[in-house]
Amino acid sequence: MDVLTVDGARKRFGDVVALDGATLALREGELLALLGPNGAGKTTLIRAIAGRVRLDGGEIRLFGKPLDGHRTPPELGIVPQELAVYPLLTARENLEAFGRLQGLSRHDLAGQVKWALEVTALGDRADEPVKGFSGGMKRRLNIACGVLHRPRIVLLDEPTVGVDPQSRERIYDMLVALTSAGVSLLLTTHHLEEAEARCSRTVIIDHGRVIAAGTLPELVDRTVGRHRVVTVRTNAPVDTPPPGAEILADDPRLLRARVSNVARDLPLLLGALVAQGCEVEDVEVRGPSLQSVFIHLTGRELRE
Amino acid sequence: MIATLLRIAWTNLRRDRVAQALTFVLPIIFFSIFASVFGNQGGNSTARIRIAIVDEDSSELSRRIADGLQKETALRVRRTSDAEGTGTPLDRAAAERLVRDGDVPVAIVLPRGLGHAAMTFGSADGVASPRIQLLADVSDRIAPQMVFGLLQKVAMTSAPDLIMQSGLSQFERYAGKMTPQQKSAVKAWLPRLKPGGADAVQAKDSAGGVLGIGIDTVDVMRQGRTESLISFYAAGVGVMFLLFSVSGASGTLLDEVDSGTLDRMLSTRVGMTGLLTGKWIFLALMGTAQLTLMFLWGRIAFGLDLFHHLPGFFVMTVVTAAAAAGFGLVLATLARTRAQLSGMSTIIILIMSSLGGSMFPRFLMSESMQRLGLVTFNAWALDGYLKVFWRDAPVWQLWPQLLVLMTLTAIFLTLARTFARRWEVT
Ligand SMILES: Nc1ncnc2c1ncn2[C@@H]1O[C@H](COP(=O)(O)OP(=O)(O)OP(=O)(O)O)[C@@H](O)[C@H]1O
Ligand SMILES: [Mg+2]
Fold first, then answer.
1. CATH C-level class of B46-219
2. A interface mutation test: which of B261, B266, B267 has the most A CBs within 10 A?
3. Contact: A145, B268; criterion CB under 8 Å
């Protein structure tokens, strides 16, 4: 079931077209990655869903109901791109403050704060001012402040930017735990490997338009195709590359080939090399990555 | 909800020592400097002092004194019931009211029989001769003394010929007629005693000794108080720093915009209106605390009579702080950055403070400056405080000031809410 749909969202800022008919759907309980180069319109889209950007056109529906656009609906949790916490308040005070402002009752609040401190692993430092926290700790707190009131949908704008791998692991653990509790999450990120590993589906947006959406295999099929890239290193330069393979310009001992069926094609390739009298030192087989899909779709040019 | 907003703001203030120092310590230091420099000796102004003259005598002498005072460049004289000089001549009661209301710092009453008494050297009929009265607010140390001095000078220089003439007729009465030669000598000499005559300056000294004109200063306020200017500077410096600290503190709004916390707030159940309301209440409470501390310090260190004026003080302080808080929010919602805010507010506040009498008492400014001052927030607040501390006005008499300040508050809050719209939705 789609809990959130965006249909043909348009937004201009002066001459800049931030959203140009973006369309996407968030399903119940999924972790959806919204990917796109800098300036693609990700933040604008999230702010539009939160009711902070007035769209020039298009419609946003939450549980089937169109948004009126003024207030952020209470079913929504927002985790902004900025570290939107009070540096002079402690972690606990920040959580309590935002929890209260989200409308949690005093009793409910205590439990939720305890839960949040636990999942963010900030329990030990709960009573220290946030300004002394590391970037990862602040990020985790930033996320916790947005999900404290048990929203059914959470929008996270770059929740893992500037944090170490350990913290990122922790953050994704938090997010996956939320999805298993039935919460639907939409997150933007530039960490493609993690999106690949942890997210159920991916939406790629560029120039304000959604240019691809689906699971990774679906995207791969539709873009780069399912072939594998095989790289072979030999002990000596190869004179004539076997059919379908090419010698890399910077190292004549390296061969690269695109194979669509590894079981069938790889032995043929290696056999041809051995027949030439080469000794094979190393073989690497790489499947299509989200990175390759992303670059394929959005090009190599720098943005912004 | 509001309580949570207050707690956030309070915790932020509690953790920010610099903001605390700016809010509470710096104004006290400034106030102490002002109060010690000016408070104990009075200022020296080049502005004209406004006085009212009541001529009950309508004699040649009283007319000359009044005219003489009118010619003094240091004075701006009012002799009629309306300020333009067209109404009926002032009477004593009206003049007293002008002083009491602070329209003029001093009124001079030239009593009936003054001219006659002067002519007879006070010895006529054996009754005590009437004395000129200076109706003044004696807690104002500057104006009455200046006027006193000028009055002495004018009384002695404006009418020596009259007095001499009457002296001569008295002389004739008791000592017999003068010879024709004596008379012609006097005739030649008398004009030189007229004001502006060649010997006028010496006449002042010589005539002073024989002039039977006494001057009494009458305090039309309840009693003389020594703290006079202390309360002025407590209010003046207090209000100025209130504006500074409130506009500085409202800058947290800009910090919150930068850090994204404002955005986050707006995604909670607090709307922009609630957010601004919370900020406004906090700033008003902080301002009230600041002003209270200021006046308490005035009480402790300078003997300001705070405790006899508590109701008026309290009402003025709360309303002033509320208006200042609104003002701070307007500046913060108008500014794009912190730097802009501090630059803008410094300039606006310094201008308002000097025009509005925070740095120099407005009653010593020229009339046009006084009128100009009324466009400022400070003038109304200070007028209110002066009513309380100088005129012992009951709270209800503060209504014009309170009305203006509350109207300003409403305007400020409306403006701030309007300007804040840019953060709400883009
Ligand atoms: N308030 C605004 N005023 C003017 N232009 C804006 C505003 N917000 C966004 N834009 C422009 O709209 C475009 C989309 O910006 P947006 O922040 O949505 O991109 P993004 O995908 O979040 O980028 P990033 O990955 O860098 O965060 C950009 O060109 C940006 O400059
Ligand atoms: Mg962004």
1. alpha beta
2. B267
3. no
When pLDDT is cut at 50, 70 and 90, the band that residue B384 belongs to is very high
* Ligand 1 touching residue A46 (CB < 6 A): no
A154 CB-near residues (< 8 Å, 6+ apart): A76, A77, A78, A79, A146, A147, A178, A183, A184, A185, A186
Nearest ligand, measured from the Cα of A35: 1
pLDDT of residue B207: 33
Of all protein residues, the one whose alpha carbon is nearest to atom 18 of ligand 1 is: A41
Quick one: average pLDDT of B104-132? 72
| Residue B172: alpha-carbon gap to chain centroid | 52
CB atoms within 10 A of CB B179: 9
- Which of B265, B268, B273 is the best substitution to test chain A (most A C-beta atoms within 10 A)? B268
Pocket-testing residue among A16, A46, A191, A302, ligand 1, by greatest number of atoms within 8 A of Cβ: A16
Mean pLDDT of A266-271: 86
CA distance B304 to chain A (A): 38
Per-residue pLDDT tens for A41-78? 999 999 999 888 888 988 899 988 888 767 788 889 99
Domain boundaries, chain B: 46-219, 228-425
Q: Which residues of A touch B265 (CB under 8 A)?
A: 101
d(CA B104, CA B43): 17
Q: ipTM, 2 decimals?
A: 0.80
Residue of B100 and A233 predicted with greater confidence = A233
Closest C-alpha residue for ligand 1 atom 17: A43
Q: How far apart, in whole angstroms, are the C-alpha atoms of residue B72 and residue B259?
A: 62
Pick from A19, A42, A52, A303 the residue to mutate for probing ligand 1's pocket: most ligand atoms within 8 Å of its CB. Answer: A42
pLDDT tens across B157-189, in order?
776 676 666 666 666 665 666 666 666 666 665
For position B391, what pLDDT does the model report? 78
Q: Higher model confidence: residue A252 or residue B285?
A: B285
Residue A291 has pLDDT above 90, yes or no: no
Distance from CA of A290 to the nearest CA of B (A): 31
**Ligand 1 atom, smallest distance to A304 CA:** 29
Beta-strand runs (E) in B86-203 = 106-110, 132-136
Q: What are phi and psi of B218, to 5 degrees?
A: -115, 125
Do B268 and A72 lie within an 8 Å CB cutoff?
yes
Checking if the pLDDT of B197 tops 50, the result is no
Determine contact, residues B76/B128, Cβ cutoff 8 Å: no
Residue-level pLDDT at B196: 45
Atom of ligand 1 nearest to the CA of A11: 12
> Could you tell me which residues are beta bridge partners of residue A65?
A62
